[in-house]
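Example: Aminotransferase class I/II-fold pyridoxal phosphate-dependent enzyme.
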Amino acid sequence: MNPFDPASRIQLLRQQDEFGGVNPSITDSSTYTFQHGEDMEETFLGHLEGCFLYSRHWNPSNKFLSNALAAMEDTEAAWVTASGMAAITCALLQLCSTGDHIVTSVTTYGGTFAFLKNYLKKFQIEVTFVNITDLKSVEAAIRPTTKVIYTESVTNPLLQVSDIPELARIARKFGVKLMVDNTFTPMIMAPARLGADIVVYSMTKFINGKNDCVAGAICGSNQFINELSNVNDGTAMLLGPVLDPLRSSSVLKNLHTLHLRMKQHSKNALFLAENLDELGVPVIYPGLPKHPQHELHKRLMHPDFGFGGMLAIDLGTVSKAYAVMNKMQSQRVGYLAVSLGYFKTLFSCSGHSTSSEVPKDVQHRMGLSEGLVRFSVGLDSDMESTFEKIRSILEEEGLISHQNK
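Written out as structure tokens, the predicted fold is:
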């Protein structure tokens, strides 16, 4: 067994149903009974362990999933939410108040960018966007009012790799929290073990893997999760983005196959990246030695799970991107769709979809081409055939020559 084996930590959890079922029962209750009135009061005050009060606070199904996620991340606790954005926004709002400041990566998911750039103005919380790979810029952006350094393990969509141990060192130096979105790299990266204080996920993506629900997670210390769920001032408790128990139960079952799926996603993505690179297609993938943070990724990753299922290619113009994606969909390479982590390959033109919230001038400055196509590579059993379809389409569109075949 590896020194840290997230799959085995999940597998070793004892989570049987109270009636002996191998899967925990789905909680079909919004509220819970108490034997004594005093117990209800103590639970409201947060003084009584093991009792459930109301499903917006905790429920057994969500607790089972939270325990499994905490085991996977090696954190003391976790909290599950109704979306990835709920996880991100609740965690940040729990840490920051009016007048506070956040340092974050300019390359980040479009919804996160919009929340940081636009929505937090309502609370007069200031945000500085930096190139997260430039550690001097990160440190220079810290202010006395800074509360959080926020980044993604591997950024969306340009696939920059965050140096989590060094960012953690900077955070500790200035007494701020490091929050890491690990959506692209579950099991591949273990941000909490690398120094992050809080790890967030869109479980909609790889963790669930079926694109049949929307869900999120926050992993951190017991203190932080208790603060989030406090009935008086807990952001998650009071804003109420509770995950439905039926969906929670479904995600928990899918979590047990995550280690298998991540290995196949990574295997397929590496195969596709290497072969596209040989054709001369501009490819961004951390598994390629030419990637600027390839060696960093190798140092930070769990070696069993590869470099992840996300890659991007630059087709130059949006018209070429649309033409190629339309043909890939018609020839059943995958689907022209946003999101990621699905068992089929998904592709989209990032600057005109999941990063469209980022202004065009900012896209240009950060190096996001209008023709950048982001791939979430699926679980294909015959990746050679998939690649040949893509190669043929690129040739038809004049993006590679016949000699590159």
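The CA atoms of residues 136 and 170 lie 10 Å apart.
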